[in-house]
Amino acid sequence: MASFPTRRTYDLIVFGATGYIGSLIARYLSANAPTTLKWAVSGRNMSKLQDLVHTLEKDYPRRTGPGVVLASLARQDLERMTAQTRLVVNVAGPFCKNGTSVVEACLSNRTAYVDSTGEHVWANEIAARFHDQAHAQNTIIIPQCAIESSPPDLMCYALANCISKHQHAPSSPVSCSIDHSWPGYSGGTIASILAGLETYSLSQMNAAGAPLASCLPDAGPHSPYPAPILPVRHDALLGPLTFNPSAMADRATVMRTWSLLQVHGEESERYGNSFRFNGYQRASSMLQGWFSFLGMSVAVLFVVLIPPIRSLLRWLAPPPGTGPEVLRHEKHFVEWRAVVSAGVNGIDTGNKAIGVMRVDMDVYSCGAMMVSEAALTLLEQQAAVGGGKRNSSLAMTLGGGVLTPATLGWDYIERLKTAGLHMEVDMLTSRDLLLKK
To answer: From CA 295, how far away is CA 242, in angstroms rounded?
Structure first.
């Protein structure tokens, strides 16, 4: 049984707490975390940290405010900060610039780690460099716990479970779409995109986009279903679909989960040797989908190939640490839908597993909720295992490593449901599908 650090000053420290997503996470924890949670906010500006704590104490008067831990990105500061806590929630991006030193400090002190990154090239680097070390010393590192990429990862996990319960196996790629209202970009999102372009070459980014780039090297054979020919298509259940700029990050996380389950999971949990994940943005029509794809392609081409465009984008973007102001009367939502065919012995039966996840909040607040609940789930599981209880999640089975949101299992899903996530997964027979037409 894995052992985890218990006697620390704090259970959780939010590093980078005065930034846009960091302050949303701090507010979420103030409103929703157990009152027994010992937590703190951390960053390099004491005045901003104290202002944040004062605001939290004012807005949540029945809650004890978080502690304050002053820490820069200097190694000695990170070592001191990570030694004080059981878990670090890292939101100090860009992660390709700032994230590695935080992970190293967590490994040095056997401190668990979750973050909000969507930078899959960096996350792949972390997995390749540190998985074996983290596994050996029972330290759990889970990147990409926000919008990228908890929802699609959990969706695939739930769909596979649904299919397995019906004695079927996936017989097509998983197609997953996202649809959401849009409050605007945060400064951190733009800064991360630009930092990635400055840090990695096109060949590095292309290599990181390969289906198995994020996977364990010993995951076994993989002969995936054919990739879709066109970036825009119509699905009978999902509707019109177009290019999703987050799909590559989502696929990296989902495929890492695939490999972890192939190597360490129960046979009933595995996705199969032919598993493929295809991510899309939901479009209002096929025409709009093509316009969206072409517009996005031209924009990406300009930003990648013309450095002055990047300078202009940096000048136009919100300052780092700031983001859209979401007013209470505004109605926002994020919704994911996914479908996969189900077969027996490699033969398609015509049945399909479908899933829907929806939360009625903006994308950044949704991301803050998902990162927070991932951290709280991990702390809860570690405490249970430390108390001698059994936990069947893959994260607790392994005890350490560079893992994924889905390795937290059903505990994470149930916490998200309690927090306001609506989720339904069901199997439709060929007759059901015929009646839907």
So the answer is: 12
CA atoms in the 13 A half-sphere facing the CB of 6: 10
Tell me what pLDDT residue 1 has. 55
Residue 434 has a pLDDT of: 57
pLDDT (tens digit per residue) in 159-188: 999 999 887 888 889 999 999 998 888 999
| Rounded Cα gap, residues 425 and 374, in angstroms | 21
- In whole angstroms, give the CA distance from residue 120 to residue 128: 12
Q: Count of CB atoms within 10 A of residue 432's CB?
A: 14
Number of other residues whose CB lies within 10 A of the CB of residue 265: 19
Question: How many angstroms separate the Cα of 127 from the Cα of each of 106, 189, 199, 250?
Answer: 14, 22, 18, 15
pTM above 0.85? yes
Summarised one tens digit per residue, pLDDT across range 56-84 is 999 999 999 999 999 999 999 999 999 99
Domain 10-146+364-412 has CATH 3.90.190.20: no
User: Letter for the amino acid at 132?
Assistant: D
